[in-house]
Amino acid sequence: MTDILILTHIDYCPPGYLAQVLDEARRDFRVLRVDLGELANIDLDRPRAVAIMGGPMSVNDELPWLATEIAALQHFIRRDIPMIGHCLGLSCWPGPWVPRYGACPTPRAAGSR
After folding, report:
1. Confidence at residue 91, expressed as pLDDT on a 0 to 100 scale
2. Residue 70, pLDDT score
3. How far apart are the C-alpha atoms of 86 and 91, rounded to whole Å?
4. What SS3 class is residue 53?
5. H or E element, residue 4
6. Out of 7, 19, 38, 109, which residue is the most buried by the measure of CB atoms under 10 Å away?
7. What are phi and psi of 30, to 5 degrees?
8. Which of 76, 77, 73, 44 is nearest to 59 (CA)?
9. How does 91-110 read in b/e, with b if 16+ C-beta sit within 10 Å?
10. What pLDDT sits at residue 96?
């Protein structure tokens, strides 16, 4: 097991640029497909940093592997290790430390004033 764990959720959402940066920095990392059950036999006390990537699914979808991932993230949070989440990866973070966003007081769109 490497020091950096990257969790992915579907084949067409790889770690991309993050993997490139880690490769260039010569940092060892491991990519797991959570949706394929690859998180099941991982020692959750080993990673020293975790990145959680995105995907087309919602954290509210009834997918059998989401509960496993959320439980793992809770464990990582208790261990107080650095984590970064992108899209679904941030939505999966459990607890009050997750930022809650409300409606933007001034709607913005490309080309609007």
Report:
1. 59
2. 86
3. 8
4. coil
5. strand 4-8
6. 7
7. -130, 135
8. 73
9. ebbeeeeeeeeeeeeeeeee
10. 45
The length of the chain is 113
* Contact yes or no for 34/9 (Cβ under 8 A): yes
Greater confidence, 102 or 49? Answer: 49
Q: Which of 45, 6, 46, 4 lies closest to 25 in space, CA to CA? A: 4
Mean pLDDT over residues 52-66, rounded? 84
Residue 88 has pLDDT above 70, yes or no: no
Check: CB of residue 55 under 8 Å from CB of residue 88.
Answer: yes
Return d(Cα 83, Cα 12) in angstroms, integer.
22
Predicted structure pTM score: 0.78
Structure tokens at 113: 């004033």
For residue 32, give the H/E element and its range. strand 29-33
